[in-house]
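Notes from the 1:1 (GR / supervisor)

We went over the backlog. Supervisor wanted to see one worked example end to end before approving the batch request, so GR pasted a single chain during the call. The sequence is below; no edits were made to it. Supervisor asked that the structure be written out right there so they could see what the output format looks like.
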Amino acid sequence: MRWRVLLLAAGAAVIGAELPRTVDGYWGIWYFNQPSGDEYVYKYSGGFATYPQQQSPIAIYAPAVRKTFFCYGGTTPGKQELLHMVSYYDHRTGIVPRPTLLLDKQTSDGHDNPVMSIDAEGYLWIFSNSHGTSRPSYIHRGRIQPAGTW
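Structure output shown during the call:
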């Protein structure tokens, strides 16, 4: 799938190219917030690949290609960096391929996890959110190809 990236910076859209790559496995980001000073250690913590709950949808079925596309906040083993990932479940074959790395958000904040949409022309959109204004937000656009290719 070919992806185009729209960088949102101070209200202006800048179009650039990005070459995503696949990564070797599915690791969701581990996130923690606010030390609690008690036996629980943090106010909340855990696997937050699809956090927070109001960020949706994170999966969309595309009947034209019989695939369910999904996105999540991932990482790589031994690191605590938020990486925006996308992949799909192929309903014909039952296969889930390796995820594609779209973006290193350069934070560990699970609030920056991505969401997605699909438009009438077959473009899959990934919205890379930001928690506050200290980091940029991004929009990725990929075209879903017909006849089972991606």
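Supervisor's comment: The first strand starts at residue 3 and ends at 9.
Batch request approved.
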